Amino acid sequence: MLYEIRASDEEGNQSQSHGQSAVGSDAQAMAAGGADMAAPANRSSAARNSGLLSMEFGSSFASGTVPGAERAWDAVASSDVETLWSGDYYNEGTSPHDGWTDKLREECGVFGVFGHPDAASLCYYGLHALQHRGQESAGICTADADNFHYHRGMGLVKEVFDNNTLPGLQGTGAVAHVRYSTAGESKLQNAQPLVFKYREGDLAIATNGNLVNAPELRRKLERMGSIFQTTSDTEVLAHLIARSEHDDIVDAVKDALGQIVGAYAFLVMTKDKLIAALDPHGLRPFVMGRLGDAYLFASETCAFDAVGGEAVRDLEPGELLVLDRDGLHLDRFTEAKKRAICAMEYIYFARPDSDIDAINIHSARKRMGKRLATESFVDADVVTGVPDSSISAAIGFAEQTGIPYELGLIKNRYTGRTFIQPSQELREQGVKMKLSAVRKVVEGKRVVMIDDSIVRGTTSLRIVNLLREAGATEVHVRISSPPFQNPCFYGIDTPDRKELIAAQKSIEEIRKAINADSLHFLSQEGLLEAIGRTAQEENRGHCTACFDNKYPTEITDHAKAGCGCD
Ligand code: SF4
Question: Which coenzyme or cofactor does it need (predicted)?
Answer without folding.
Answer: Mg(2+); [4Fe-4S] cluster
